Structures are given as C-alpha cells and as structure tokens.
C-alpha cells in the first residue's frame, strides 16, 4: 500500500509540473488561464491583460527567445550548442527596496559559445527611462548608453554594470523593447551559468531600478 501511495504521489507531482510548464510557455493556455477566475488567483501576469493592453507572458517569452536564437542559428558556423535563458523582470526583485509600480517585463537570451544575444520587452513604467547623459552615475561611465542593463551580482546585491541594451520605446513612452549582442568574458560566462547575471531597468522616478530579473536557463 505504501509503495502504491508513493507512486501515486510521484505521478501527481509530475502531472502538476507538466501543467505548470504548459501554462508558462504556452501563450494560448497561459492567456486563457490568466483571464479566468482561477487563473487570476494563481498566475501573476507581468502586466495588465485588459483588452487594450493584452500581453501574454508565454507569448512574449516565445517571441523574445525566438528573436534571440535566430541570429545564432543563422551565423553559428561552428555548431556550438545554443542554451536559452529567461529573466522575468519584476519590481519585487529590485534591491534594496521594491518600488511602487505596475511595470513588468520579460527578457529572453540565447548563448552559443561566448556569444550572448539578448531580447527584451517591458510595459507600464511609472515614468520615462533614466537618461544617463543628463543623470549619469558617479563616476560617469560612457558605456552606459541606455537605462536597460546587464549586471553581475547575486539576487540580494547590486552588482557592477556589464552591458547596456539598445532600447526602442513604443507609442506610450512607458513601454518598448530592447536588444543586445555581446561577447562574454570567461568571468561573465561563469556568472551567467551560476545565476549571477541579472537584467535591470531604470526610470526617472525609480533611478536605482524599477524592474529586475536574473537570467535563468530554460
């Protein structure tokens, strides 16, 4: 009897895991669940899903990962294996204090060898992006060319800047997309594989960071 109960429990855990993956990575399933009473209580969408602001999590993950992987597939002449990563951007991840904002975002990245291609998107910022030409860090860093960055550090600390992403804003001025293509150093590659590379986004209202998320393998 104990063995049968153990097998039943293992089967239920496996089924629950499969359902979670389907919801996370299937745009149709995720969007349908998010719009249902049950889904609204169990699934936290990165941004509002009202008809005029619909932005399905699974769909955006798929779009960003496809956009990040495509250039590697086209130019990967050595046949390097491609490893994909996702960062779910949330104000709850900002250190040392979470800002008051409804903003959310998703970043997809693809790695082949030491080349990392990054694609991101975000919505519902509290304000315009921080302008580092008029509001620079101290001391100024000429490599910080946008307010969307890759940093190195643990989830509980603010680590050093590594790269800036190229940002394109949408018509609202509070959302948009971002892209980057980088050659990682051995140290950065090790940090990525150890969960120590994170993405953050800075605005004029939340200069220290409005959204943040760690790049995790998928």
Describe the structure.
The longest helix has 24 residues. The chain has two domains: 43 residues; 172 residues, Immunoglobulin-like, CATH 2.60.40. The chain has five helices and ten strands. Helices cover 30% and strands 27% of the residues. It is an alpha+beta fold and 218 residues long. It is globular. Strands 6-7-3-2-1-10 form a six-stranded antiparallel beta sheet, with helices on one face.
Strand order of the largest sheet: 6-7-3-2-1-10
Enter the CATH topology name of the largest domain: Immunoglobulin-like
> Total domains, how many?
2
The number of distinct helices, counting runs of at least 4 residues, comes to 5
What is the level-2 CATH architecture name of the largest domain?
Sandwich
Dominant shape: globular
Strand percent estimate: 25-35%
**Sheet/helix structural class:** alpha+beta
Helix percentage range = 25-40%
Major sheet, described briefly?
6 strands, antiparallel
Count of DSSP E strands? 10
First and last CA, distance: 37 Å
Q: What string, H for helix and E for strand, traces the elements in order?
A: HHHHEEEEEEEHEEE
Low-pLDDT windows of residues: 1-54
Brief digest:
The protein has 218 residues and is of the alpha+beta class. The chain has helices at residues 2-25, 27-34, 37-42, 57-75, 186-193; strands spanning 82-89, 104-112, 115-123, 148-152, 161-164, 166-169, 176-183, 197-201, 211-214, 216-217.
What layout of secondary structure does this protein have?
Elements: H1 2-25, H2 27-34, H3 37-42, H4 57-75, E1 82-89, E2 104-112, E3 115-123, E4 148-152, E5 161-164, E6 166-169, E7 176-183, H5 186-193, E8 197-201, E9 211-214, E10 216-217
Helix pairs in contact: 1-2, 2-4
